[in-house]
Design goal:
six-stranded parallel β-sheet; Gfo/Idh/MocA-like_OxRdtase_N; Dihydrodipicolinate Reductase, domain 2; nine-stranded mixed β-sheet; oxidoreductase; NAD; 328 residues; Rossmann fold
Amino acid sequence: MANLRAGLIGLGSMGRHHARVLREIDGVDLVAVADPGGDPFGVAGPLEVLRDVDELVAAGIDMAMVAVPTVYHEEVCVALADAGVHTMVEKPIAATAEAGRRVAQAFTDAGLVGCVGHVERFNPALQEARRRLEAGELGEVYQIATRRQGPFPARIADVGVIKDLGTHDIDLTSWIARSPYRSISAQTAHRSGREHEDMVLATGLLDSGVIVSHVVNWLSPMKERLTIVTGERGAFVADTASADLTFYANGVIPTEWDSITAFRGVAEGDIIRYAHAKREPLRVEHEAFRDAVLGVRDDVVSLTAGVHTLVVAEAAAESARTGQTIRL
């Protein structure tokens, strides 16, 4: 069987990594790249740097990776859908939820594979945590808390921290819990002099009853990427920067005080850091996209899920503006 012919549009900071992975995975040939701004990282190699999505389509591609700035996601993705090209688009799916719905509808109407590059779902620590949660190792899940902090990325100019970094945490939380958001409340801050927010604190409730919280900012001198899942048997702590997963077990406090024996308190129990395979998340994500195009499996991040994530992100921004909890 011939390899899939892949195209890449957007050769910036993320595009260079997509180019590398597309060249590495089996069953795919990177045959065309495009960016109206040229090739700042020199990733095109022997390929001509095309000007736009129309030239990319004309190269005769089966699948495409879209890594252009968020404001252009809808335009580029709809053009690819109209041309019959299976597509993965970097997160968020589009600049607005309404635009995201139009993108999702375009691929549904065309009967094509369309997916969103929420790469954190493919982090080994989170994949291992989800596998263990599904096996019931944590029992009932009570709370999911995330912290995603680090220095300001000068390359991000068209969206705030909620739609850029925050969408990672919204998506992975809903995915881990297998439940959409029911409500969200948030506070934001603007400290860098930009149009968009650079800090957000958000709390929410999932349909399943799990409570969630997110701390996200671009103004921290240290980089932190933590997801903490607390349940009846303890807590999983996933560090997606190192791909480590640690289990903190509950230690039951014995008591002989009759009036409080109905309450089983929690003390520190065993701590286990799991050993598991650590493959590059971006590579695993691209393999999932390839396999979806081939019809082998379907564990990509759907466009519908991408729209839900963006709806929650916009609700968080609305909550910060209005001071109200937003029900979804």
